[in-house]
Write a structure and sequence with these properties.
The protein is mostly beta strands and 331 residues long. 0% of the residues lie in helices and 38% in strands. The protein contains no helices and 31 strands. A 12-stranded parallel beta sheet has the order 2-4-7-10-13-15-17-19-22-25-28-30, with no helix packed on it. It has an 11-stranded parallel beta sheet with strand order 1-3-6-9-12-14-16-18-21-24-27, with no helix packed on it. The protein has a 5-stranded parallel beta sheet with strand order 20-23-26-29-31, with no helix packed on it.
């Protein structure tokens, strides 16, 4: 920020003022370079490492990650930050954010925390992550969290944005919802509480979920929303059963991509009706992948009509459903 003292009549030229111009560094924005420990002052562009423990206004930037780099939080205890941003990693390259726990928290002014990876490479976070409020994870490449699930408070939300993937080891928190706006959320299983999963697509973009653990019955409701493509993938080598309803909002294309050797069983895709009784969605279904998709239930829940009305398209594999449980079959 560069605040200018008052009393500045305009002059000709690009930038001309009377008075004095005072500039000062953003002390809560620190940039790391290369590979090494956070406590090493030479790794930080301003020549000063962050204070142990961090603070709620701190933004940590890793703008020039190189292939094989590891930035390690060697500060003891939990380290506070409101944002961690990683970039600069080329496609095919990989880097690691390692070490002790990082706690994402609101800033003093209330700005929500965020974890960003805005490069086409592959970044892995092995440091434990904790979020003290709703957390947004923005990924443009492949971002993998291996040590622990972001610990979110009860009733908060995990947001996924960006066209890349986010891989989590599991989702077990008793949170309000998981909202995927773009890209692919990859996880073995969903919470059993059940935490609803909202795939909220935008026109020309996709919001995706990939499940990788077989033999599970998922009790979370799945909501397919927006104006783009909502996609559910399996990569589990077995069967996954969704025991709750799947709801269709908007005019999305619902893509179910079931891998070879996998089976995905849905209770039903229900069209959402507004309080006035007007239908506000016309979902279509596309079955892809060499595996089997089953839509097994007739009937409806207490507030929505049964069965989607959009076109049903079988691209590959097997689709099992009742004749009156779907829209028109595409040729």
């Amino acid at each position: 920020r560069c605040p200018v003292t008052r009393g500045w009549p305009r002059q000709s030229g690009l930038f001309s003022v009377s008075g004095s111009l005072v500039c000062f560094a953003a002390t809560n924005v620190l940039a790391f370079s290369g590979s090494g420990s956070w406590s090493d002052a030479s790794r930080w562009l301003d020549g000063a490492a962050p204070a142990a423990g961090g603070n709620s206004n701190l933004v940590l930037r890793f703008p020039s990650l190189a292939d094989g780099a590891a930035a390690t939080n060697d500060f003891s205890g939990t380290f506070l930050a409101r944002r961690v941003w990683m970039g600069g990693l080329a496609a095919g390259a990989s880097a690691t954010l390692a070490g002790n726990a990082i706690a994402f928290t609101n800033s003093a002014s209330g700005t929500a925390p965020k974890l960003s990876f805005t490069a086409p490479g592959a970044a892995t976070v092995t440091a434990p992550l904790v979020a003290r409020s709703a957390l947004t994870v923005d990924s443009h490449g492949s971002l993998t969290v291996t040590n622990a699930v972001p610990g979110l408070p009860t009733g908060s939300i995990l947001y996924k944005s960006g066209p890349g993937s986010l891989t989590l080891p599991t989702l077990t928190n008793n949170i309000a919802s998981v909202n995927v706006y773009q890209g692919n959320l990859v996880t073995p299983s969903l919470a059993t509480n059940p935490t609803p999963v909202n795939l909220i697509s935008q026109a020309g973009k996709s919001a995706e979920l990939t499940l990788t653990k077989s033999g599970q019955s998922v009790s979370a409701a799945l909501y397919l929303m927006g104006s783009g493509t909502c996609a559910v993938h399996t990569a589990c080598g077995g069967t996954i059963t969704l025991s709750n309803w799947t709801y269709g909002y908007g005019d999305t294309v619902n893509l179910f991509d079931v891998a070879a050797g996998d089976a995905l069983s849905l209770r039903q895709i229900l069209i959402f009706y507004g309080s006035s009784g007007a239908r506000i969605s016309s979902n279509s279904l596309v079955k892809a992948g060499a595996g089997t998709l089953e839509i097994r239930s007739q009937g409806s829940d207490s507030g929505n009509n049964r069965a989607y009305l959009g076109t049903t398209t079988l691209r590959n594999g097997t689709l099992t459903l009742s004749e009156d449980d779907c829209g028109p079959l595409a040729t």
